[in-house]
Amino acid sequence: KAGVTQTPRYLIKTRGQQVTLSCSPISGHRSVSWYQQTPGQGLQFLFEYFSETQRNKGNFPGRFSGRQFSNSRSEMNVSTLELGDSALYLCASSLALTGGAAGELFFGEGSRLTVL
Amino acid sequence: AQSVSQHNHHVILSEAASLELGCNYSYGGTVNLFWYVQYPGQHLQLLLKYFSGDPLVKGIKGFEAEFIKSKFSFNLRKPSVQWSDTAEYFCAVKEGGYQKVTFGIGTKLQVIP
Q1: Of A20, A39, B102, B106, which alpha carbon lies 20 to 30 A from B88's?
Q2: Which positions in chain B touch A74 (Cβ < 8 Å)?
């Protein structure tokens, strides 16, 4: 069974540009979450999608947005990039909504964004 | 807002030493608790989880964690670490019916042969 796939793996942008990151969840997983990982902050929750609906959102500015398609694939977009947006962006998919497996996340390898 | 605190950000141990990593969370309701591990160059993966029942849970590679509800804690333990346990460890909490999972800042463990 294929894992969570994120593209691109690495990218370099300049301030003011925008970027779109893609995530393909594990087959059958309908929940997709996005996190920003930085050395000083750990994993910061961005948002979570289920069946094309954003159900939860973290404390990030409106420059950060996302969406989910009918096949559960998800994209996140960051507009007007700032130096502080340099980070590893992680996507995680999840199968169960309730019960013992609820909240168990399967992570991709991440997209490392560098903003110059 | 829910928060997760990990007490040690960087731990250095010799092989065969015992390990305990602290984790406390702030949410007072029903929670699912997790420890995730990120080995060098690899993606995050689940180490163990607590959902309900026995508060002492066992995970992969000899790790275990104890949920103490009265202390809002979920500490990770291993009796004897190996060099291959060198990694970053993250405590995480999912509250109630929400799908949002909140992570701690992480603890980097370095095991010296």
Answers
A1: A20
A2: none
* Position A101 pLDDT exceeds 80: no
Tokens read off for B96: 């109630």
Rounded to 5°, angle at Cα A33 from B48 and B61: 15
Tell me, what DSSP letter sits at residue B52?
S
The closest CB to that of A31, out of B45, B46, B99, belongs to: B99
**Distance of residue B86 Cα from the nearest chain A Cα, in angstroms:** 17
Q: What are the tokens at B53?
A: 């029942």
Question: Which range among A102-106, B2-6, B49-53, B76-80 shows the weakest confidence by mean pLDDT?
Answer: A102-106
Question: Looking at residues A79-88, what average pLDDT do you find?
Answer: 97
- Closest to A45 (Cα-Cα) out of B95, B49, B89: B95
Question: Residue B88: helix, strand or coil by DSSP?
Answer: strand
Structure tokens at B100: 């949002």
Q: Partners of A107 in the beta sheet?
A: A92
